[in-house]
Amino acid sequence: MKLCPRLSEKQVLRLSSFIKSKENEVKEVRRAQAVLLLNQGLKIPLVVAATGYQRRQIFEARKRYLAKGIRGIRTRRKGKPKELLTRKEIKEIVRIIRRKNSPLRFGYDSRFWTTSLLADFIEKRYKVRYKSKTSYYLLFKRVKFTYHKPGRVWEKQSKEIIRAWKKKYRPKIKRAWNDPNTVILCEDEMKLSTTTTLKKIWLPLGEYPKVEVCGSKKSKSVYGFLNLKTGQEHAYPAVWQNMYLTKEQLQKIRGVYPRQKLLLIWDGPGSHRGKEVTRFIQEDGRIEVIYFPPYTPELNPQERVWKKGRKEVSNNKFIPDVEKVTNDFVNYLNDRRFPYSLLGFSAKS
Description:
The chain is α/β, with parallel strands linked by helices. It contains 15 helices and five strands. A five-stranded mixed β-sheet has the order 3-2-1-4-5, with helices on both faces. Helix 2 packs antiparallel against helix 3 (about 45-50), helix 2 (about 25-40) packs across helix 4 (about 55-70) and helix 11 (about 245-255) runs parallel beside helix 13.
């Protein structure tokens, strides 16, 4: 007698589609995975290890799926809770959130909604206060809002200059992109120091972490060149940033790409425009330079490389030895690829 007859092809496809859908709960997906793994003949201890469900739960999930289909996989819902807001009120709130600058229209000194602002607005207008922030998150989700930390925009940044820069240089970057003998490099520098950078992290309720910090401040610079076509990073440590050290880094890059043409895109500080750097570029004869518009770090994909490196290597870390953390930082970057985009061109293209 077969205790576990195999699922039909149609049943397997339904489970596979259910698992791939992003709309289902994690527990529901794990049940579906358990049923599939069991159907594939995987030993029970391995199914238990893969899904976290016990033997009884696995067979119960399979039994319910055979009896009820996908409904048997889903979590059993309790009765629908009482809604504090009517459908009409929810529709009105959704329309209000969608309006541009709507917080300003209701007396708030902000162009953007936050959870606390929305909670205050709903309480004043509808006399309703939710106990959990989740209810407010769901309202934002209904209007397809996502949670973002605002980016910085420099006061002196000019949108007109940025538009003109994109119009002027995109064709040149495109030509270089299509030329197999040209390497496109986006360059920038940064400093790492013994000062600990603290960032928010998720922790169990009631736990409050503390990170040891170093009392003395020492720093070291890093030069970074991102190959836009391949996503390969070339990072080099340096004691500081000036035209002599910039020239040294260009010599290293030329050693990596000895015969190719180089399209170098970077910003315009003195360390990039100094006579030592200018002379090296002129004598090389195969390096073309494009300068980013002033006050536009967000255009440079190398900035995103720095952010990723800091997140993985130096944030929330005690840094007593700046030499060691700089080497770790450089090794991390050089061992990975970063398919970041400039004007629509990236290693993903």
